[in-house]
Task: structure prediction
Amino acid sequence: MQKYLYILFLIGFTAVYSQNNLSGTITDTNNQPLYGVEIYAPQLHKGTITNGQGTYTLKNIPNGKITINITFLGYKTLSKTFIFSSDNQTFDAQLEEAVFTIDEVIVSTPFNKLQSENVMKVERLSAKSLQKVGATTLSEGITNIAGVSQVSTGTSIGKPVIRGLSGNRVLVYTQGVRLENQQFGSEHGLGVNDAGVESIEVIKGPSSLLYGSDALGGVLYINPEKFASENDTQIGISQRYFSNTIGSNTSVGIKTSTEKLQFLARGTYAFHSDYKIPTNQRVSNTRFKEKDLKLGVGLSETNFSSELRYNYNNSLLGLTEGIGEQTRETDMESPYQEIDNHIISLHNHIFFKNSKMDIDLGYIINDRKEFEEHEDHEEEETEEEHEEHAEGEAAMSLKLKTFSYNTKYHLPKFGKIEALIGVQGMHQTNENFGEEILIPDATTNDIGAFATANYEWKSHVFQAGIRFDNRSISTERHEVEHEDEIHIFEPIDKSFNSFTASFGYKTTLFNKINTRFNISSGFRAPNLAELTSNGVHHGVNRFEVGNSELSNEKSLQLDLSLEYGSDHFELFANGFYNNLNDYIYLFPTGEIEDDAPVFEYQQENAKLYGGEFGLHLHPHPLDWLHLRSSFEMVIGEQDNGNYLPLIPANTFKNTLSADFSFDGFQQGYISLSAHTFLKQDKVSIFETPTNGYTLVNFGLGGDVMLGKHKVNTSLSITNLFDEEYINHLSRLKSDGILNPGRNIVLGFSFEI
Result:
């Protein structure tokens, strides 16, 4: 692995220096120059900004076809493709005001187009938006995206849910590579810190064409923060305080760039005590701590650009056993998890005259340990010996190593046709080091080949693709003794194959309604837990029995998206129907083993359907006022008549906000929102109904000028009226434990 990284990065440093420059002037429609407009080349991971005269120069651009994005707050984003061949070019542009939102470039789709140009509807949430909602974790923050929820255990552990599907059915990408962190486990959270995140994109529905297995339900694509503009250095500090958990999140970052090289580093430390519920009690051992380090180096040369990033994350997560001793301590007590996650990603872009090749490599080490209280009935053991035994040995220890690769060749454009072909895969090993074994030692290999094309004709856009995948899984035999019984993990050697395809169409009806129609197939190979489990999963208190005869889950989804927009009104409706063949689920047998109920993995055909509907009102002449309303629903049913588990309740979300500025306070905002979760009574046979509730949230913030420094400030209050409620997707629901009460979040950030 190290050899491959060295060779590819060496190629970049030995390339010939480029002299291509792009320069020009950016003005508004009144020909007034705009200061601070960002000119950014995403393929090169570099950019610059306009000066007080509205002029800019982006230097050291490699030969080939390069896309440049021009963005400025309050104006429509402009995206243009240039072909450079050892020459300088000039481009002047007038930006139009954007009444609602900036049209963002979407990275997670095949051709990286503006959202308005994409065949596929993708939701996007910026880092600034995350801070405004006062979320404690990244997983909590993304629930503000329509159609996205989370399965949570307290405030520390959250798993994304996209239109009713979660776990191994939702693929997470961070730093441009797939994140592998034992996501099969109910108590295994997202594991990504929100510091150093630029934005989050969500593809809702089967995305196996681009991403292979595990993208059956959708993709969560986390974009890292950008490098500094050319010849600029930035030092940033941010701090947030959380009243509910008496928590703190501190982050310090530095970024510097020259014409050829970019560098960034960010360190973050967070700690939280047990969260408090509206009855003024704390839920014992829901505390957590997190250390996070992100590093990045970028390089641009004549026909080559490269970006190397590294992320180290250490998390200590308490595992609650209910409401017990009331304390504000942050030190861990058993049981708890310690997780070390190392993510290395290397992205290379090789530019030819009319085409390019992307080579993305990733290497992830996920080291997960679980510590429990060990009961020893020998009276001679002292308390000190007991504590040493509990703290020194991990009951469960899993080490997952994943090497992934993704090579895409963008063919020369032929008229209005864009096309790419690619090869993608991974090599993964799982090893056990603890006394408890949930899944056996195993090796997994993926390989997939795909092709997709995009065709534009007048106002019509067509996109289609096809893919073939193979996944092979081999495991070792294990014997585990527990309470005088032997649990045997029999070895397996399985191979799973699948063809997937997609077709999409975008047009404008009646010159006003943007219409997108997509039909896509997806698949998911069974994971190790589903194939091999044979023991107690303490996180959810059940004895799980795997099924080595499971076959692929297969999905076929229809999506229809309608969007109408005028200068002061937006309306959208997204509907979907997802047909799932051989859906894998846990079924209670009624037996008890090791003092836990036994659940077996089975398969049954199922379906999910629903959608998201909403509006955004921006009344004239009250340009500063915004009203946003949406309704989200999803229903999941098996063909045998039973409902699917962990389906989020139907939800109304309403937000009234205002923008304002005055001397010394810029880009200010104030918001009041009410999120109403309806009663969820369409539940699986081992779930219980959940009552409805409404949460009211408040937000206030903006930029304050302190001398020469601009300080971004924010105040968020979630669950303003301290409502007593239990979310249907809470893992603590079965114990009757409430979700968090009121939480006041104070934050500020500034650059030196």
In short: Residues 2-98 form a domain with the Immunoglobulin-like fold (CATH 2.60.40.1120).
